[in-house]
């Protein structure tokens, strides 16, 4: 058995009487614990369907599966799908057989337009792009959500549970989630977007999906208004009691798990385990870069993870100086990073801070009250061991776009922020910037910065000729909750 079996059982023994250690069947029982220490431990199926933990925390695996250098070297011959099966199997445990997991991965990644799924593109002797935007909706969110849609369907099959997904989006999550669950049995999705404040491509990718289980709502308000409405519905006992609510934002563990795969896939292609690359990650909610941290904790040699932010730089300040304090959001050309509170950062604070759920719950309560906190020394040192960070302004972003354009590569604004941070850091190792969106998704911003209007990829097809369908609602709890209640399927 692999080392992670020992690690897992080492932890588990303290809390649970298990039969003799390291029998494969026991090791397969991967369990998840909440960052706030009060919610029940869950297996993979339940953690996937639940999203947020009942104590307000986020679920993380009880222990990180471990991969040896030999096991990593052996991945050099594997396709993306086979890499995904290897990397995710220990997290899935006995919730799916290996054959079932392979079948789901084959389906999910069969919809990507590149045979490598997430290809590496070389920029110069030092820099690479890891292109994560070859999925159906042109942003990296597809990598996780295509799989999550299939996992939902798989876990609901044969039950009477009907999931009601309610979410708010500034564009990319909504389009990827809708594509992933459209037409799937036992699921309805209600997606709120701020009316007139998402790009035309993003809106059409949501509103032209006419499957009867897809419900688009344009809110007369901002993204923050939309998100506050979603929170209010989850927290309203009457509303939440009537439906089986589920979340598709990156608080869902299964999403992060699917993103760990491409760190392995890319690093192995650059020579891991002998080579330890740097990854520069355009960061908003800290989901994507936390997946990189998970890969590092699983034994993948990673020299450093660079958290690249735009001028909304709370994460840069937190990592550079331990100051985690939220201000007002400044709208930028990279809207998926226009964020002040990064929900997944709590997962790092937990793992880096000795996994003390009670202490973290206290710390987070303080933050929720004052919108500011200091990292503890342990948290700061834990973060400093793996992360660097940088803040990229509009001029630096545009400069990175023009540098890449010299090699005939058009970057989207988010990717350009990652590349700018990678170029400034240059840590003497292969530097991989995560290319999180196709430039066509943000073509106005790209044109403003470079003078070149990106071409629509063929797989967008007739997006601009298709019929749109959505409802426009005022940003009030009464209007939105009544609208959803009328259309959703109540608990059995
Ligand atoms: C969501 C998104 C990000 C930020 O990812 P996080 O996981 O929230 O840090 C960056 N770029 C693009 C294009 C995105 O859609």
What percent strand?
A: 5-15%
Bound compounds: pyridoxal-5'-phosphate
Write down the overall mean pLDDT.
Answer: 91
Task: Order the strands across the largest sheet as they lie in space.
Answer: 3-4-14-9-10-13
Structure report:
- This protein has 21 helices and 15 strands.
- The longest helix has 17 residues.
- The chain is globular, with a radius of gyration of 21 Å.
- The protein is α/β, with parallel strands linked by helices.
- Bound molecules: pyridoxal-5'-phosphate (PLP).
- The site of pyridoxal-5'-phosphate has 16 residues, from helix 13.
Offer a few descriptive terms.
six-stranded mixed sheet; alpha/beta; binds pyridoxal-5'-phosphate; 21 helices; single chain; 492 residues
Question: What does the secondary structure layout of this molecule look like, with pairings?
Answer:
Elements: H1 3-15, H2 24-27, E1 32-34, H3 44-50, E2 59-61, H4 69-73, H5 80-92, H6 98-110, E3 120-122, E4 127-131, H7 141-156, E5 163-168, H8 172-181, E6 187-194, H9 200-207, E7 214-220, H10 223-235, H11 237-242, E8 244-246, H12 253-269, E9 278-282, H13 287-297, E10 304-309, H14 314-321, E11 323-325, H15 345-352, H16 357-370, E12 372-374, H17 377-386, E13 387-391, H18 394-405, H19 413-425, E14 431-435, H20 443-450, E15 471-474, H21 477-487
Parallel strand pairs: 4-14, 5-6, 5-8, 6-7, 7-15, 9-10, 9-14, 10-13
Antiparallel strand pairs: 1-2, 3-4, 11-12
The site of pyridoxal-5'-phosphate has 16 residues, from helix 13.
């Amino acid at each position: 058995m692999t080392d992670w079996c020992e690690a897992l059982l080492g932890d588990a023994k303290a809390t649970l009487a298990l039969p003799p250690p390291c029998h494969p069947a026991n090791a397969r029982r991967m369990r998840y614990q909440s960052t706030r220490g009060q919610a029940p431990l869950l297996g993979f199926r339940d953690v996937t369907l639940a999203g947020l933990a009942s104590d307000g925390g986020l679920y993380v695996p009880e222990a990180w599966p471990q991969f040896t250098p030999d096991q990593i070297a052996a991945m050099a011959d594997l396709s993306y799908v086979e890499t995904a099966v290897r990397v995710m199997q220990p997290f899935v445990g006995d919730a799916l057989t290996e054959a079932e997991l392979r079948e789901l991965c084959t389906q999910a990644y069969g919809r990507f337009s590149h045979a490598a799924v997430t290809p590496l593109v070389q920029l110069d002797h030092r820099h690479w792009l890891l292109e994560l935007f070859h999925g159906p909706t042109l942003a990296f969110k597809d990598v996780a959500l295509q799989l999550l849609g299939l996992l939902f369907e798989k876990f609901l099959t044969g039950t009477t549970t009907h999931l009601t997904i309610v979410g708010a989006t500034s564009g990319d999550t909504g389009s990827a989630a809708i594509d992933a669950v459209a037409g799937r049995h036992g699921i309805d999705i209600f997606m709120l977007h701020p009316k007139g404040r998402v790009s035309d491509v993003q809106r059409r990718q949501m509103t032209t999906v006419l499957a009867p289980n897809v419900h688009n709502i344009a809110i007369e308000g901002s993204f923050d208004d939309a998100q506050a409405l979603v929170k209010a519905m989850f927290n309203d006992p009457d509303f939440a009691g009537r439906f089986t609510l589920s979340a598709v934002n990156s608080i869902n563990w299964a999403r992060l798990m699917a993103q760990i795969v491409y760190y392995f896939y890319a690093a192995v292609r650059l020579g891991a385990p002998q080579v330890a690359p740097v990854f520069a990650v355009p960061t908003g909610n800290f989901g994507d870069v936390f997946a990189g941290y998970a890969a590092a904790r699983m034994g993948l040699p990673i020299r450093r993870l660079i958290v690249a932010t735009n001028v909304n730089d709370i994460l840069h300040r937190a990592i550079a100086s331990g100051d985690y304090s939220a201000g007002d959001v400044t709208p930028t050309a990279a809207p998926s990073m226009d964020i002040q509170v990064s929900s997944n950062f709590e997962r790092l604070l937990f793992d880096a801070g000795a996994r003390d759920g009670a202490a973290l719950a206290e710390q987070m309560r303080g933050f929720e009250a004052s919108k500011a906190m200091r990292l503890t020394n342990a948290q700061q040192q834990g973060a400093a061991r793996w992360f660097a960070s940088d803040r990229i302004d509009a001029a630096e972003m545009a400069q990175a776009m023009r540098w890449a354009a010299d090699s005939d590569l058009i970057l989207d604004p988010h990717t350009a922020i990652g590349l700018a941070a990678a170029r400034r850091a240059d840590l003497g190792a292969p530097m991989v910037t995560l290319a999180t969106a196709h430039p066509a998704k943000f073509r106005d911003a790209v044109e403003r910065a470079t003078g070149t209007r990106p071409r629509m990829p063929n797989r967008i097809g007739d997006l601009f000729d298709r019929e749109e369908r959505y409802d426009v609602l005022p940003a009030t709890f009464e209007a939105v909750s009544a609208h959803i209640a009328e259309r959703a399927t109540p608990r059995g």
